[in-house]
Design a protein that fits this description.
Elements lengths: L14 H16 L11 H8 L3 H13 L3 E4 L3 E4 L11 E7 L9 H18 L4 E7 L4 H11 L3 E5 L3 H8 L5 E4 L10 E5 L1 H14 L5 E6 L4 H16 L7 E6 L3 H12 L8 E4 L2 H13 L7 E4 L13 E4 L3 H16 L8 E4 L1 E4 L10
Parallel strand pairs: 3-4, 3-5, 5-6, 6-7, 7-13, 8-9, 8-10, 10-11
Antiparallel strand pairs: 1-2, 12-14
Helix pairs in contact: 1-3, 1-5, 2-3, 4-11, 7-8, 9-10
Amino acid sequence: MTSAPLNLDPPEGSSRVREAADKLERHIRASGLRTGDRYITAEQAAQLIGGSVMTVQRAMKLLASKNILERRPKAGTFIGSAGVAASELPCIHYLLPEQFVTEDKDQERVWPLIHGQIYGMRTILPNLSVQFNFIPNQDLAYTRQIVQQTSPAGVILVLASRPMRAFFDQSGIPTIVEGSAEPDLANLCSVELDQVQTGRILASYLLQKGHRRIATVMRNVWSIGEHHLHDGISEELAAAGLGATALRIRSAPPEAQAIAELARSLLTATDPAPTGFICRTEFQADCLTSVINELNLAGQVDVAVCNPPGPAHSARYPTVLPDTDAIGRGRIFGQMFQQLMQHTPPQPRGVQVTVRLQLPEASLVAAP
């Protein structure tokens, strides 16, 4: 006598299925979807809430029995008549790396820019609320938990890893990357300063100052923006007739000692040492300047910074400034979210903000 195989799938009334259904319902109601709109697949929903596909399929069936979802054979899953959004107050989540609350003093200059962006977004979405979440070590499980508990109406990713961007690309949540997004992540929008233009402008400045050996000092977390930046630098060096040995590329964590050691190794090189530096942040530039002074190289080495530190009058190093201010960029965010919430894909999905060279005022030049 043979026995029937055990069915290990959770029944529709199980606590796991009810919990998954509750999470999906919160996501549906916070997403701004309307009756008849297409919903994400069971596979995407399982990735979103961290459950198995089978559990999610049963949770969707449970929601369909309540008219929150409507499942159409061979067509997909759609929002039912009981699944319309309940809240008129959309909440946008900024997801930032935990380093934004460390000792890196550059972050003191970032917050006024973010506040400007929020003001700009609220000119488009007056009822908008904003929540900040600081993600330790790009932890995707931690991020998934935030999404499950809060069901954001939209997300802005700042310095997010590729796995993080890929997760939100499949999440069904309106998401904008502050910076660059890979072309294959077709559901993401992005707003960034033109990094190729930034690289060309700063490399041109250093070449005009007479430097023929340039080094870049980047953060230890890279995005596609760093690739574009170096493309621009390389193009400018090639146009000046310089070869591959004219550029050194380095990265370091946001720690003064690590950046200082990296700077010493570059400045004491004998092949020969670079005399022009392009740093991602002002904090890195300050660490580098301290080593330049320690080695009595002041006046022989020039340092420029990629990331604008804030208002034009606050720049202490040669840098670039966007032609659109923080409030204007916030309006771009707001317009994108407005279209995403109306299920109209923004065109274009990626906006590049042009930049211009900004030299520091004499009184603000980094002191020895």
